[in-house]
Amino acid sequence: MKKTAFLFCLLSLNLLFSQKVQDFVVTSPNGKIKVSIVISDKITWTISHEKDIVLAASPISMTLDQNEVLGKNAVLLNSKREKVNQTFDSPFYKKKSIQNNYNLLLLNFKNDFAIEYRAFDDGVAYRFITKKKKDITVKSEEVVLNFDQDYNTLIPYVRDLRNPKDPYISSFEAHYENKKVSEFTKDTLAFLPFLIDFKNHKKAVFLEANLEDYPGLFVTNTKDKKGFESRFSKYPLQEKNGGFNNINRLITERADYLVKTKGTRNFPWRIIVISENDRDLANNDMVQKLSEPSKIKDISWIKPGKVAWDWWNDWNIYNIDFKAGINTQTYKYYIDFASKNKVEYVVLDEGWSLEEDIMKHNPNVDLEALIAYGKERNVGIILWSSWMALTKNTDGILKNYADLGIKGFKVDFLDRDDAKMVNSVYDIAQKAADYKLLLDFHGMYKPTGIQRTFPNILNFEGVKGLENNKWTPNDDVPLYDCSIPFIRMMAGPMDYTPGAMRNATKSEFKPSHSNPVSQGTRCHQLALYTIFEAPLQMMADSPTAYMKEQQSTDFIAKIPTTFDETVALDGEVGKFVALARRKNTTWYLGTITNWDSREITVDFSFLEKGKTYEAEIFSDGLNAEKAANDYKREIITVDSTTKLKYKLASGGGLAMIILSK
């Protein structure tokens, strides 16, 4: 008996160690990127770009209930390859259409699962696919990023004081910390997207896409500190009110699984975008390419535009004959300003209703009168709501306000991306679409492509925006402004809320609640309206401030919020960025720098050859180093052969509108 058992164990070990190793390779269409997949007792992938290793061998797996591990001793049934080269329309985006060119490898395994790999010229992605008849419970997913060297990173960490014991409560707002892979901060997590700085000027940004019915991805250091490994928020079982004004839902008990979900489904994409030149990161479409197409058939009612915003400027209007504040007269003033300057919307931020019950209005705000007043002046009204208040009766609330004539909602204080919250975002998006309502999500995790699936979602926060200037004296904002176009903006639009008309140099900046100030120059602020992607773009300052600076206001008002074409002109992560965007036949150009002043050359070769253009140019004034709101406005003639040099002041910028003659 003992001899038989010994022989059985020996046979089992021999079978295990003799399992056939299978290798697959998929390359990008241009041949520069190579993805190598090895199937043995585990599944690993390795990525190289030309001769450089981008990702060392890294395992992937997914654990289901009953200890079923997809990726452990996996038995390959077959493989399928496909070359795809297609174009799809991209309304409400930075370009009219997107070229989607990639090579696909699909590996089908025993036990009803598959892994799909796609190799693009600018990066790679993979996802798990399950084909099980019954629902499944996902216990965990192994996403590992191993590196061959201890590279520098730009990475945003979770730091939230609302529930320090729960690292998954986050507003997803953080400046990037420049540290080596091995120097990952202890006892915290990092969220996506983040950047790795390789040799030969190459960089990689890590993202995810098509996040649906699943929690968002966080990372921490691997045990050997040579890479990163995944962490996910477990499914919430018990919650309580907490956080700011008690309007967050904090988790008090979690399950031992990530999600209970359909057995036949596609899981989120794990993405690595690779660039040889920093500027290419500022004009990347990877998340858009890997997202589900629109579920809204008729999108004609979706109207992007700019928004006159109240909260940042603390309702601080003056030279008027009424008391400014959260009241009907103040909002009529905002509507008059918006109408005069062709601003499409006014948002009523917190205070127009009870925070815990938005069906109960502030008695000082006559909402129906404001809707009618705005309609007469071609200005739509958007309402602020906490996520908690809206989800008490999502259908009833959305129907009620849609019937009144409201155009959309700014939904705030989600501050989680567990599967329950992600599902809630999809539910709100679908119901808002049913009632033809726009959405702007604040206190929100980074976009992961839902903006393509539900194009009524016109913006997301998940960025450390201008509001932080009201209370943080030590943040390096120009540095951050020159970093996010290459990192956070790759995930999708950003509700950064630019537009400050009070501007300060580095030495003069001080936070202010009622008279907030931006770091950097006036032209820096103007340029952000072209650089930052935001189909629903805020004008953060007060009508009074804008009317005092009518030249700047007129310029901002003329810049659209979606475009037909984007050209990344130049840039270096954390230092400067220059972008040009076209709408119809008009071009818009924005350039900003960090606190280092610099000289740049604008090459107008992106313009159509043989045509003459008139350029309205706002550049930093000669005295902008001391008076940050100093600028020079000029109108000149340019064509595709023009090259012009400009001096950007410390924290400065350059903004242009280029009209075809």
Descriptive account of the structure:
The chain has 661 residues and is of the alpha+beta class. The chain is built from 13 helices and 39 strands. The strands form seven sheets. Strands 1, 2, 3, 4, 5, 10, 13, 16, 17 and 20 form a ten-stranded antiparallel sheet that branches. Strands 6, 7, 8, 9, 11, 12, 14, 15, 21 and 22 form a ten-stranded antiparallel sheet that branches. The chain has a seven-stranded parallel sheet with strand order 28-27-26-25-24-23-31. Helix 4 packs parallel to helix 5. The longest helix is centred in the N-terminal third of the chain and has 16 residues, at 2-17. The chain starts with a helix and ends with a strand. Mean pLDDT is 96; it is low at 1-18.
As a percent range, the share of strand residues is: 35-45%
- Overall SS class: alpha+beta
Span between termini = 95 Å
Low-confidence stretches: 1-18
Question: What is the helical fraction, as a range of percent?
Answer: 10-25%
Mean pLDDT: 96
User: Shape, please?
Assistant: globular
Helix tally equals 13
Can you describe this structure in just a few lines?
This protein is α+β, with helices and mostly antiparallel strands and 661 residues long. The chain has 13 helices and 39 strands.
